[in-house]
């Protein structure tokens, strides 16, 4: 139980952001060498794979699908494609006072909503207050819980005052799509949760605007002529839905679509085809097994630790992922947030059996693992996990939900699940994990599915947000990683490489395998199709 292993595989993490740049840059440069001809309609499978949220149209709740959402909605700011810096989007500039309690946002002049109404600071105020309202059921509402007031001294300025320092607010804005006050001010946050507005005629400020939706088939957008960066090169863009695994790659090869997410096997198979470019990079997503901690079987940490010892991560990485993944010790990826001493829970079935025996768990009682990952690789992973846990003495059943939306409904109710296999978005700012690990009492977010309630974690996440100095902040999150690593509310598995395939007939195309599919500027207004 006290055995400690040094984290001996730092190379991926030391170069995580640089690796995104080094992998993506050649492909992006290749695409940008071409001069776009303009016009035409690009068709893609933008919601295929773990970064998608097919037919989940409320971006405050979706948690993924932003590759598509950001074609018609916009945010105040975004990361660059390498996730090394935040840049302005609807915000032209901003100032932060010394202790990070006052943020002054200057919005761009001349930006209009798709119905022609001007985008103003009042929309910023409305959106933040809307998302922070508990009735909105927003997965990012907790990020704005410390907002005390928002003043709009003029149409282009929003002054946000916080109850306590918050060094993470700029990162939070890269999650939040702006909403039109003039269109939604008479609809309550609770009504918007299930509102048809999201799927009938949503109004954004992005390069494309809503045109048509055919349930189960596609969404079509058309170029917004008055987009503030200039009219998009494409006339329109279509997002097709592909519920069957592998069907989007068949459509890509047939020329029916121009882009889709690829599994590892699909990427390797497409790699030598001169008609396509395979894009790849670290997912910045930790895959993990999360426990329903309201279930008394999982309240003993020894059971959770036994689960970890029973799994041979390295053999799964080598044989199933073909080396395109890296084991992680906690929910963080970057080296500055990982302490020098962590337990990697290297494969030890005898240790797992001993811990289970000590805990007194009834090993004859089946345990179900539920997931939304329906691709063949993920299914192979789960079958392999099932076999490893059987060796340790646990009986595991597997369930894959039909959609991510169904999965979210399942894990929202503790009575419906035991253990979940999922991906959790990471990024440059470690506070992103607070919505998963803070207790519900200090976190109005609905993403703490496991029911984690650890006062030490609550206090440390609060301290991390309020610490402005980067070195001191990193030390706080190292303490958080240590608690995650010991308590194992989640059993962290790995961060994988993810892939996309794009037709070489698409020019100026930028795609990064980012968490949830977004939070970076992809210059979609410059995408075009070769003549």
What are the SSEs and their pairings?
Blueprint: E1 5-6, H1 11-14, H2 16-32, E2 41-44, H3 59-62, H4 66-69, E3 77-79, E4 86-88, E5 91-96, E6 102-107, H5 121-132, E7 147-154, E8 157-162, H6 169-173, H7 181-184, H8 189-193, H9 197-200, E9 208-214, E10 218-223, E11 236-240, H10 247-254, E12 259-262, H11 264-270, E13 276-291, H12 301-309, H13 313-319, E14 325-327, E15 341-342, H14 349-359, E16 367-371, H15 376-392, E17 396-400, H16 404-411, E18 419-425, H17 434-437, H18 455-466, H19 470-487, E19 490-503, E20 506-507, E21 528-529
Parallel strand pairs: 2-11, 16-17, 16-18
Antiparallel strand pairs: 1-15, 3-4, 5-6, 6-8, 7-8, 9-10, 10-11, 12-19, 13-18, 13-19, 14-19, 20-21
Helix pairs in contact: 12-14, 18-19
Describe the structure.
The protein has 531 residues and is an alpha+beta fold. The longest helix has 18 residues. It has a domain of 215 residues: Dipeptide-binding Protein, domain 3. Strands 12, 13, 14, 16, 17, 18 and 19 form a seven-stranded mixed β-sheet that branches. A four-stranded mixed β-sheet has the order 2-11-10-9, with no helix packed on it. Helices cover 30% and strands 22% of the residues. The protein has 19 helices and 21 strands. Strand 5 and strand 6 form a beta hairpin. The relative contact order is 0.19.
């Amino acid at each position: 139980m006290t055995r400690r292993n040094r984290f001996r595989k730092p190379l991926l993490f030391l170069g995580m952001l640089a690796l995104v740049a080094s992998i993506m840059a050649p492909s992006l440069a290749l695409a940008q060498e071409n001069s776009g001809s303009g016009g035409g309609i690009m068709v893609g499978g933008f919601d295929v794979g773990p970064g998608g949220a097919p037919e989940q149209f409320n971006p405050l709740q979706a948690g993924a699908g932003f590759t598509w959402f950001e074609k018609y909605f916009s945010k105040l700011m975004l990361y660059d494609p390498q996730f090394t810096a935040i840049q302005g989007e609807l915000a032209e500039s901003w100032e932060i006072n010394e202790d990070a309690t006052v943020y002054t946002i200057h919005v761009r002049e001349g930006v209009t909503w798709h119905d022609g109404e001007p985008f103003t600071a009042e929309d910023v105020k409305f959106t933040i207050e809307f998302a922070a309202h508990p009735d909105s059921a927003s997965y990012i509402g907790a990020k704005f819980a410390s907002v005390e007031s928002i003043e709009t001294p003029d149409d282009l300025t929003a002054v946000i005052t916080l109850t306590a320092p918050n060094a993470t607010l700029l990162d939070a804005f890269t999650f939040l799509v702006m909403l039109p006050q003039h269109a939604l001010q008479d609809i309550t946050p609770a009504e918007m949760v299930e509102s048809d507005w999201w799927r009938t005629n949503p109004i954004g400020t992005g390069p494309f605007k809503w045109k048509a939706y055919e349930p189960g088939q596609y969404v079509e957008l058309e170029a917004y002529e008055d987009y503030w960066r200039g009219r998009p090169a494409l006339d329109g863009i279509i997002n097709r839905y592909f519920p069957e695994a592998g069907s989007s790659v068949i459509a890509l090869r047939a020329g029916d679509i121009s882009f889709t997410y690829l599994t590892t096997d699909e990427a390797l198979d497409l790699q030598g085809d001169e008609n396509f470019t395979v894009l790849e990079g670290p997912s910045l997503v930790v895959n993990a097994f999360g426990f329903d901690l309201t279930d008394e079987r999982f309240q003993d940490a020894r059971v959770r630790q036994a689960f970890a010892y029973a799994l041979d991560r390295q053999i799964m990485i080598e044989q199933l992922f073909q080396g395109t993944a890296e084991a992680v010790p906690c929910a963080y990826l970057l080296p500055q947030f990982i302490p020098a001493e962590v337990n990697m829970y290297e494969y030890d079935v005898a240790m797992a059996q001993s811990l289970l025996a000590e805990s007194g768990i009834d090993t004859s009682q089946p345990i179900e693992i539920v997931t939304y990952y329906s691709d063949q690789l993920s299914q192979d992973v789960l079958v392999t996990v099932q076999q490893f846990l059987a060796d340790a003495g646990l009986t595991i059943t597997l369930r894959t939900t039909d959609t991510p939306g169904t999965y979210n409904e399942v894990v929202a109710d503790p009575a419906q699940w035991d253990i979940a296999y999922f991906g959790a978005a990471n990024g440059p700012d470690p506070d992103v994990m607070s919505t998963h690990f803070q207790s519900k009492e200090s976190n109005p977010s609905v993403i703490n599915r496991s029911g984690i309630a650890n006062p030490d974690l609550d206090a440390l996440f609060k301290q991390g947000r309020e610490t402005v100095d980067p070195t001191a902040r990193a030390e706080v999150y190292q303490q958080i990683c240590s608690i995650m690593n010991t308590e194992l509310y989640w059993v962290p598995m790995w961060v994988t490489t993810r892939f996309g395939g794009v037709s070489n007939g698409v020019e100026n195309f930028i795609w990064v395998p980012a968490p949830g599919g977004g939070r970076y500027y992809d210059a979609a207004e410059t995408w075009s199709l070769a003549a």
